[in-house]
Structure formats: C-alpha cells, structure tokens
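My main concern about presentation is that the manuscript never shows what a single data entry looks like. An entry of this sort, consisting of the sequence and the corresponding backbone structure tokens, reads as follows:
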Amino acid sequence: MNHFVQRDWPDRPPAIKGRFYRKSLLIVLSITCLPTAIIGITLYLLGSSHIGKEVTSSNEALLLNAVKRINGDLNQLELTATQWAFDPRFDGSLRNVDLKDQYTVTQNLYRTLTVMKGFYPLVDQVHLFVDGKSPVVVSDFDGIEAVSSPDDLAGYRAVMSSKQGAFWLNGFPRVNRSDDHTVALVHKVPGIGQPYGILIFYLDRDKLVSLVHELSLGKAGSSFIIDEKGRFVVTEKGAGRPEGTPFETALAAEIKRHETGSGTFLYNFQGETYTVTFGDFTRLGLHWTYVTAASLSSMTAPVKMMSRMIVGVSLFGFVVALLLSWLASRRIYHPIHRLVGLFHDERRAPDPPSDEIGFLEKQWRHLNRESRELREKLEQAQPWMRSSFLLHLIQGHYYSFTEEELRERMNAYGWSMDGKRFLLVLLQVLGSVGCRGASRTAMLSSSPSRQRILRRS
C-alpha cells in the first residue's frame, strides 16, 4: 500500500507546470488571443489599404481642383484682354498720335491701363506698345518709354507679325530689361484691322507661384509648369524661365519621354520615391504641362500613423488577452494543483508529475483497488466482529451504553436495525456436563455458524 502524505498545499501552483496546465493555457490563449489577433491583422490590412486609397483619391481631387482654378483664372484673363483689345480707346487713331505731346490722350491711357491692372488681381503690370514713328511703350508704372534696343524692337514687331491675335509668351522681358523674364499675355490692338501695337499683361510672379504652389501635395515635393520645349514656365521658386532644381530638371526630362499627355507614375530620385502626376492644357496655342511630385513617404504618413495606431491597439489587446489567459489558466489549474498536492509524495518523487490528469487517474484507480480490498477484508471479518460484540455484551462491557448507542454499534456490524427488535438468550448448564456445556455455550456464542443465539423477534 502506497504511503500518502496529506498536507495543506499553498494556493500558488508549483514552478514547474505539467501537461494539463500547458494545454489549458494554450486553449485559453487560443480563445482570447486569436480573435484579437485576427481582428488586429484584418484592421491593419484592410485599414491600410483603404486609407491609402482615400489619401490618393483626396490628393488627386485636390490637384484637379487646383488645375481647374488655374485654368479658370487664365481663361478669365484671356477674355478680359480680348474685351479691352476691342475698346474704342485703343482704336487705330493712336497709330499717328504723338503721345509725348498729346497730354490728354496719354493721361487717358494711364488711367485705362491702371483700371485694367486693378480689374484682375493676377496682373502685375499692363503695357501698351505703339509701333509708330517713334516706337514707345506706355505703362502706368514707368510712363512712356522709348524702345531703344534693337532686340526689344525686333521682339515686339515679331509678336505683331504673328498670325494669332492673342497668345501667351514665356520669358518675354519688359522694355529695356533684358534679364527680366516673366509670363505675359499678349493681345494685338486694335482687335479688328491692321494692328499698330500690342497690349501686354504681365502676370504677378508671386501670385503665379502661389497658384502653382496649390498644385503641391506636400512639403517634400515640387510643382511646376513647363512648355512644349521642356522649359520652365513657373516653379515654386519663380516664373518666366526660372532655373529649376536638379530634381525638377531631371523630372522635366522624364516627363518629355512620356508620350501621353497626362498620367501618374512613380519616380525614384536619390533614393527617394515620388509619386508624379502630370497633365497638359493649352493656352491660346501655347502648350503647357503642369507637373506635381510628392514624396511617397509624406503621402503615406497618415496611413502609417493609422496603421501604427491599429497595431498598437491590437498589441495592447493582445497583452491584455495574455494576462487574462494567464489568470484564467491559473484559476482552472488551481483545483487540479490541489488534487495533485494531496496525492504527491515529495519524499518518493521530488518533481511534480508531468501529466497531472494521468497521475490523478492512476492514483484514483489505486485508491479504488485498495478500497475494494479493504471492503472485502471487512466483510470477511464482520462475523468475528459480531461474535466479539456479543461476548462483550454478555460479559457486561456495554452496560453503560444506551439502547441507541447499541443500535448504532450493531448497525455498524452489519445488522439491519430498521423496525426490528432483538432478543438475546443465554443458556448455561450446571454440573460436569454443564461445565462442558458452558464451554460449549461460549463456543456457540463466538462461532459464526452459531449466530442464531441472537434471535430476532
């Protein structure tokens, strides 16, 4: 028979857990952590993809709106210039007028040019070139200036000889300023008939750059407009054939290699990836291409932030699930641990069993076997115990017992006591025969086969 040590075990499970603890921990972890992990991964994948599409769609919408706004502003300026070209104040009579002598006419021209300039905020200055006996340029800012440079005069007359009545010029300088490159809208005057001059609307550089800056999708990028020859019309640094940065120059060359008029592509420059969007629009016969480039890292910054938030929340939920799983597994394992502690003998096996359920099953079977053996032995010894009880009763050892106590004792020895009464008859034979009979009576009282000496009534 095995030796069992029964003691109060601490509530804390042993340092080395068995197979049941590991299985229960894995089951609880699967129940609590798998849904959290699946939700987190799903949110990360679907959320990142959705946010990326939303950011790209939003940027494209902003770009289209900015391009429409620029187109609308330039269209309005073209319409305004055409209306002024047909104004009677710019009729053919100015061809033969000496503006230096005709003070009234000159003052009217100043006022008209000032009104034209203030009518449209995008315009910086308005000049009127008159190709008379003495070619001059009239402006509200510089007054009347004679065209003294042969190159300037040739440039003005080349514009007048063009078949188009109005067009845009990129890098057309102001009079007597060869290095003053601007963007200008030119319209012949008068609008009908043989032209004697041209109206020149010089755009404000800062405002034009501001319009182009609206095309930009972020700080880490660039926006600019180029003409059909790949020359810069406007950049974020200036207007009228400005010098582009190395990145803008390389990107402009890349745009020229694309046969399509518009599109979007990824462009790598010095280890950085940019998303490039370009499109074209025509301004009175002049073909311009707008280009905007944004760093892919800056565009995906909101996506990364949301993705990190999703991952952070998922990790937090996973940690909480781990903690709850650990606590739940301890609670589940606690009864098993106590049962193992009741059966485990450290003197025979210092280490806890590796399989708690198998260990408990083995001990349970062992206890059942021992219990069955003890019950069989008890059943075999019960007749002798009854005889011994009767002898002690006859000899007066139980005189101090009450009837209830005697019933309990007899019930423990296997007699059925419910609704029954017992009568004990003692016979004694005197004499020599009686002596042998007395011994016989004692034998009858102690023999299992003579239990009928206790007769039920």
Remarks:
- The mean pLDDT is 77.
